[in-house]
Amino acid sequence: MDTLTALASAAFGSTVCLATFSTVNRLRQLSRRSRIAGLVVTGTLLCAVIGTVAVASRSVAVGFIAGAVLTPPVHRWIVQRRRHVVGP
Fold this sequence. Notes:
The protein is mainly alpha-helical. Helices cover 89% and strands 0% of the residues. It has helices at 3-27, 32-55, 58-86. Helix 1 packs antiparallel against helix 2 (32-55) and helix 1 (3-27) crosses helix 3. The protein is flat, with a radius of gyration of 16 Å. The relative contact order is 0.20. The mean pLDDT is 81.
């Protein structure tokens, strides 16, 4: 397994995860009909990206999954830390 490829894929997986979180947060502000359509489009794009990664080599798939799995807890930790520093 190529380590550099796995690390690059982890960064890509992390980026996709954060972009998806941002998209869903923006969709929450829209009307119900627009929100559902946006979620369907977002889900379709995620399936296409994951399918493309799955066809790639094993190191790409492992890196992508590692990046996507590790990003949410780290992102939550950063956001909570920022709140404690900024708060009174």
